[in-house]
């Protein structure tokens, strides 16, 4: 499950509740975080089992999967939020977000 999809949907829900763009982004990230963490932890646990009980290529896949999940999580949470906040500092952002 892609974290950005969850974040964008939560932000869209907050916008429908007539929140300001900044508060919609903040609350969207806050409400999406439990589902994002749950999905990623579950996948990492599965990859750990693959690594423990697999051999050769399966272990390599498990390591690559864990690295990918961590990179995806960090990118979605920190980079996406930073880009949202930079975008919201623009004068035209006061009009709203088009998500």
What can you tell me about this protein's structure?
The protein contains 3 helices and no strands. It is mostly helical and 99 residues long. It has one domain (3-95). It is elongated. The mean pLDDT is 88.
Keyword list:
3 helices, 99 residues, single chain
> Structural class, please?
mainly alpha
- Number of spatially distinct domains: 1
Percent of residues in beta strands?
Answer: under 5%
- Oligomer class: single chain
Q: How confident is the prediction overall: mean pLDDT?
A: 88
Outline type: elongated
Distance between the termini: 19 Å
Question: Which stretches of 5+ consecutive residues score pLDDT under 50?
Answer: none
- The helix tally amounts to 3
Main sheet makeup: none
Break the fold down into its secondary structure elements and pairings.
Layout (H helix, E strand, L loop, with lengths): L2 H14 L4 H33 L3 H32 L11
């Amino acid at each position: 499950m892609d974290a950005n999809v969850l974040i964008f949907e939560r932000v869209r829900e907050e916008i429908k509740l007539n929140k300001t763009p900044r508060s919609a982004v903040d609350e969207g990230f806050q409400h999406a975080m439990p589902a994002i963490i749950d999905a990623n932890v579950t996948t990492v646990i599965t990859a750990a089992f693959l690594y423990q009980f697999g051999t050769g290529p399966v272990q390599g896949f498990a390591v690559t999967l864990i690295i990918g999940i961590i990179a995806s999580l960090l990118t979605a949470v920190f980079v996406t939020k930073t880009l949202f906040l930079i975008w919201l500092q623009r004068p035209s952002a006061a009009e709203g977000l088009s998500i």
